[in-house]
Amino acid sequence: MSCSVHDLVRLERRGIPTAGIGTLPFADEALEQARLLGMPDLRMLLIPHPVQLLDPEQLDALADDIFDRVLKHLQETP
C-alpha cells in the first residue's frame, strides 16, 4: 500500500478527492505512512483480507458492497 498512500496524499494535496481502499491487516501501516507524509487524517476505506483469493463473483460482490461507501467518501469534505 505504500505507493498507493503516496499517490493518495499527492492527489489530496492537489484538491482531488480520493478513496483509498486497503485491507484491514495493512491499515496501521497505511495510516502511519499518511501521518509521516503530513496527512494524518487521510481517509481510507478498509475491507476484509485477503482479496487475492476471491473468485471473480466474490470480487464483484465485494465491489458492489463498498460502492456506495466509495461514492460517499469521495463527496465528503476532508
Q: Tags for this entry?
A:
single chain, 78 residues, mainly alpha, two-stranded parallel ribbon, 3 helices, 54% helix
Write up what this structure looks like:
With 78 residues, the protein is mainly alpha-helical. The chain has a two-stranded parallel sheet with strand order 1-2. Helix 2 links the parallel strand 1 and strand 2. Helix 1 crosses helix 2. The radius of gyration is 13 Å and the shape is globular. The relative contact order is 0.20. The model has no long low-confidence stretch (mean pLDDT 90).
Q: Which stretches of 5+ consecutive residues score pLDDT under 50?
A: none
Q: Strands of the biggest beta sheet: in what spatial order?
A: 1-2
What share of residues is helical? 40-55%
Strand percentage, roughly?
5-15%
Gross morphology is globular
Structural class: mainly alpha
Quick check: average pLDDT? 90
Q: What Rg, in angstroms, do the CA atoms define?
A: 13 Å
N-to-C span: 21 Å
**In total, how many beta strands?**
2
Give, in order, the helices and strands. HEHEH
Major beta-sheet overview: 2 strands, parallel
Q: Quickly count the helices.
A: 3
Give the helix/strand layout.
Elements: H1 2-13, E1 20-23, H2 27-36, E2 44-47, H3 56-75
Parallel strand pairs: 1-2
Helix pairs in contact: 1-2
